[in-house]
Amino acid sequence: MNSIRACQQALQTGQVSAVALTQTYLDRLQQREPKVHSFLEVLPERALAQAAAVDRRRAAGETLGPLAGIPIAVKDNLCLEGVKTTCGSRMLADWVAPYTATAVANLEAAGAIVLGKTNLDEFAMGSSTENSAFGPTYNPWQGDRVPGGSSGGSAAAVAARQCVAALGSDTGGSIRQPAAFCGTVGLKPTYGLISRYGLVAFASSLDQVGPLANSVEDVAWLLQALAGHDLRDATSLRVDLPDYGAAVADEHTDSLKGKRVGVIRETFGEGLDAEVATLVQGRSPNCKTWGPRCKR
Fold first, then answer.
1. CA–CA distances in Å: residue 241 to residues 80, 169, 246, 251
2. Which of 84, 93, 99 is nearest to 122 (CA)?
3. How confident is the model at residue 264 (pLDDT cuts 50, 70, 90)?
4. How far apart are CA 196 and CA 237, in angstroms?
5. Is 122 a residue whose pLDDT tops 80?
6. Could you write out the three-class secondary structure of the chain?
7. Residue 149 near residue 127 (C-beta atoms within 8 A)
8. For residue 221, how far is the Cα from the chain centroid?
């Protein structure tokens, strides 16, 4: 169960409890963490307590949020009350956040379970997650490769199936680039769509909080929970939010018909024409799902 939809269905039908699902991901996290080092702090007691509360509410027949029982991770430059927020730096090694970032609070309000805080380049200044004061994160697909950065811990955790989804931050590519390096989906949203309150700033005019997950659909559901106006963020937008989930639902899969896609040839190197031809058909030769070249 590596998608929000699959987890939701299993939880709603009673196939698995939120506690059991959370424990499964905690076990997988501990098993894979020595080779990936995607987390700076794991919060098993807190996560299991959150999961138990979800199970109790479900058993009582309460209406639950759309992410109820879904295990997630949070980049360690986002505050979580009572938990260390180090930003990957020794300077903040013992700093405990006195409040929770709005983005994190929104996911928790939707029922998400926070498993822990993920690694990053120190103060989010980097593109490889090699520059954390607490050691590098490794690409889960190939350990001698970097996972990208600065949200490399979040991207690697999602790719290694250590969580269903994660939060990152993006100033100049820090969600998008590690998502690409790790084979996940990452989104830097429109500036002001997701509150920056509780995000330790790098460059406030560019910083954005955003989700990483295994599919566009999962990212859409996360964005639905994350987006919205926040009085505590002066740059937060006051806009009507569309139904992001519906926008990527099956009945909308033809919405790109007739659209034109621009390709920068210089970024592809040799073999561009064959690559584009297969991508247009929805089949990429670089992925095991569609062709033989991918080593996954």
1. 26, 21, 12, 20
2. 93
3. confident
4. 11
5. yes
6. CCCHHHHHHHHHCCCCCHHHHHHHHHHHHHHHHHHHCCEEEECHHHHHHHHHHHHHHHHCCCCCCCCCCCEEEEECCECCCCCECCCCCHHHCCCECCCCCHHHHHHHHCCCEEEEEECCCHHHCCCCCCCCCCCCCCCCCCCCCCCCCCCHHHHHHHHCCCCCEEEEEECCCCCHHHHHHHCCEECCCCCCCECCCCECCCCCCCCEEEEEECCHHHHHHHHHHHECCCCCCCCCCCCCCCCHHHHCCHHHCCCCCCCCCCCCHHHCCCCHHHHHHHHHCCCCCCCCCCCCCCCC
7. yes
8. 12
Counting beta carbons within 10 angstroms of the beta carbon of residue 262, is it exposed (0 to 12), middle (13 to 18) or buried (19 or more)?
Answer: exposed
Compute the chain's Rg from CA coordinates: 19
Which residue out of 17, 38, 75, 236 is catalytically annotated?
Answer: 75
| Catalytic residue (one of 89, 150, 169, 236) | 150
Is 150 a known active-site residue? yes
Q: How far apart are CA 211 and CA 169, in angstroms?
A: 8
Sign of CA dihedral 233, 241, 205, 39: positive
Give just the sign of the alpha carbon dihedral 276, 277, 279, 284.
negative
Can you tell me the distance from the alpha carbon of 93 to that of 212, in angstroms, rounded to the nearest whole number? 25
pLDDT of residue 148: 98
**Choice among 174, 188, 195, 236 that is catalytic:** 174
Q: Quickly state the pLDDT bin for 33 (edges 50, 70, 90).
A: very high
pLDDT band at 120 (very low <50, low <70, confident <90, very high): very high
Q: Residue 52: which of 116, 113, 117, 115 has the closest Cα?
A: 113
What strand order describes the sheet that includes 208-213? 39-42, 113-118, 71-75, 165-170, 208-213, 185-186
Integer Cα distance of 296 and 288 in angstroms: 6
